[in-house]
Input
Amino acid sequence: MIDTTRSSRISGFHKKSPAERLGIVSDFAGLDAAAAARLSDTGNLDLGLADRLVENVIGSMNIPLGIATNMRVDGEDVLIPMATEESSVVAAVCNAARQCYDAGGFTTSMSGTLMIAQIQAVDVADPHAARLRILGRREEIKVICDGCDPVLLSFGGGFRDVEVRVLDSQSGPMLVTHLIVDTRDAMGANAVNSMAEALAPHISAWTGGRVYLRILSNLADRRLARAHAVWPLDQIGGEAVRDGIVSAYHFAAADPYRAATHNKGIMNGVSAVVLATGNDTRAVEAGAHAFAARSGQYGSLTRFEVTADGQLSGSIELPMAVGLIGGATKAHPTAQACLKILGVTSAERLARIIAAVGLAQNFSALKALATTGIQKGHMALHAQNIAMMAGAVGDEIDRVAAVLVERGSVRQDIAQAVLQDLRGGAAGA
Ligand code: MEV
Output
């Protein structure tokens, strides 16, 4: 039955305080006082700050923050804060890192900290000649772009290059100008978007065309983070495990259906660190998936091979547009604490660590999938969630979960029955 008495047209909602908005939403949705109180408890995020970060705030949603141990990246041990709601993700990184720790852990590198902004011009009569006109104005373009962000310049960043493509589109040729900008420790969206907007009228004048879009590209393929690790055979359980992992990689490389899941697992690790550090998870995810499809077929972000002496070698390469300054990274106190835990002082180091986490995550997923399957590992934590949903508290949670796992049946109805037995037994004792 559709409820026609409720209206989502709420005039001036954005002008109200978070508490007033929460009141309106509670009435609309019939929330009880406990649900409303939970929403308004913003935990480690100040309500006033939340209200400034996004619009129409009524509260906050807390996500568990776990620490992955055992990670050694470029010879330095690091603890990895990971914000995720998914069980087994943190454990997967710990396990993968433990199995390559003695062999040196992860070695990483980065292609640079260059971001790309695009300016779209249409209705250009002579797009190929116009392309050359733009390229010929490189120095002028540099001055315009660098003028937008003196602070970036003072940190050694700024305009680096201009490229122009003539794109064949459904509505005819489009002239697409790329500004290549070194954004250093900033993710850089604001910097490059400002430059693209400042340059747009000039592009229009030089080409005689009409400019529409002026925005960064999330396919940050001038900002590739790379990580590599070797897992010795005796650490991973022998040749059969190694070959299973390599075969799993070959499966992903050959099949987009598998590659999507394979890369989703990688992003379980990547996005958890990106989120923990207040960075833009969607930007990194969009870049990763677009990069995975760069050959025309969507494929794997990682590669697994066998070294000359028979060990398992894993590597990853993906765009990593993350920063240390600006946005939630700077404003959110938890993000600041996470950066301190990581001990990073540059966006590059952060990006490289995140790539290593993605590789670690993938190693563990492939190892589990190629051997026992993932359900066994998942079940222990899942069983605890089910036990809690059935009403278990305190040490009841572990006891109920253990019974569910032992029976191989992790269901809420069974959890309720087990809990009842447990409490009955306790009452009778
Ligand atoms: C689950 O969130 C992630 C996995 O499906 C990844 C994979 O299949 O490689 C386990």
